[in-house]
Amino acid sequence: MKLLLKAVTIASAIVATPALATSWTLAPESSHLAYGTIKKDTVGEVNSFTNLSGHVSPDGKVEIEIDLSSVETNIDIRNERMIEYVFRKAGTATLTAEFDMQEVSKLGVGETSIVDAEAVLSLVGTAVEIDTEMFVARLSETSVMVSTNNMVFISTEDAGVNAGVDKLMELADLPGITRTAPVTARLVFNMDDKKVDAVTGGDIKAGKKVFRKCKACHQTKEGRHGVGPSLHGVIGATAGQSDGFKFSSSLQESGITWTAASLTEFLADPKGNIPGNRMQFPGLKKDEDIVNVIAYLQDKTKG
Ligand code: HEC
């Protein structure tokens, strides 16, 4: 049901914007996430995390995992105390955000842009909302860099780590540690090989495999009809109109326009969706297969 709703909202867009997008994976060696602390009002120190991982899905959902045990304060005992008292051995923190990947995909190599980002940092059981601007640079065809445009401040109270900071002060016999930490990030993402349809989010390669089930009857080349009609240019076309194929009248008179939404319903249950049509196929059971085969058709059979 969720899938259907999604397909309906994108139905018109898929015809208008056949743009393809990919997913992206964080390149840990070129990425850097750091925060600052100030003790005794005067001594500023930089801490960072050396172990980051993450990815961005084609629709711009960013997920970054921060291995809290990889914190680097440049002093071993401080690393240990940080992990034990501040991060309370929580393992990983996750940063999730929504990002306009269409905007990013439009950037030419060497071009930059500033985009809004709304992120949520989940740290030791507390979620901190972050609303900020990010600076994006397209480094190459296959890589982008995203960095904080300004410093981002995270309050230790919001982050739920105040008690841990108290403990650090006590252990290190410090009169004070500031209760807000500036955070900066530089994240480099590489494009994944996998080709994903920007609008449906379907995986084109996986869709090609699903299409094997259709191949007994359908080809994607123009005008090549078999048991079933050629599916060339099918997305955006009116049902039952392909030249040179004798369609059943039920399909021909259905008045359907093939969009991601209508195909989703048809492929899930061909007989139920258009009673009386002559496609001898029980339908695809998995939502995933449907999304992927539509992505494949979208890519392969452009009109
Ligand atoms: C056993 C043969 C067979 C298989 C397998 C099959 N189809 Fe069909 N398909 C047909 C026939 C025959 C029609 C025409 C039905 C009619 O005229 O009522 C058709 C019609 C269609 C149409 C409508 C085309 C148009 O121009 O309106 C689409 C879309 C379609 N099939 C997609 C698929 C996909 C995707 C698969 C695999 C998941 C598939 N079919 C599997 C035989 C098949």
From TrEMBL:
Gene3D superfamilies (UniProt xref): Cytochrome c-like domain, Lipid/polyisoprenoid-binding, YceI-like
Stored InterPro entries: Cyt_c-like_dom (IPR009056), Cyt_c-like_dom_sf (IPR036909), Cyt_c_1A/1B (IPR002327), Lipid/polyisoprenoid-bd_YceI (IPR007372), TTHA0802/YceI-like_sf (IPR036761)
First and last residue of the signal peptide: 1-21
Domain of life: Bacteria
Keywords: Electron transport, Heme, Iron, Metal-binding, Signal, Transport
Ranges of residues in domain Cytochrome c: 202-301
Record flagged with keyword ATP-binding: no
Keyword Iron: yes
UniProt protein name: C-type cytochrome
